Amino acid sequence: MTRRLSQLGIPSPRGYARWTRETVHKIVSNPAYAGKAIFGRTYRGPLRPKLRPAFGQPAFPRRGTSVYKVPEEDWILIQVPPLVSPGAFEATREQLKENGDRSRARQRGTKHLLQGLLVCGKCGYAYLHYQAIKVSPGKDHCLHTYAYNYLS
Fold this sequence. Notes:
This protein is an alpha+beta fold. 20% of the residues lie in helices and 12% in strands.
């Protein structure tokens, strides 16, 4: 789909000549194209506590709030002119769901009990598990900066 849109010379929503899979996915899964815009899916609330700041991030973020999801029954539906038929939109959603169910893509989430809890004594970065080629670290670098550690 992305190749066809790019070859036809149709610019992306931001005006780029090249389309990405993410852009197409956002479009075909957005209910506004079927005539139902949704307002109030999320809200900002108190900052969630974190075990430690993310690598390279400040301990106290500039924005002292977190984003929370709102239950579906509290969403505000706004009728807008549909760009595609509701049947075509539903067929697309079903196909996307089936594609996701059959996908062999890597599942996200932790794979090891202590993942993210062990911390480097040198730089304070949490150890993660990656399946990568072993690389010898330099004198001034930690092992995990090379996307490999010895938890596996």
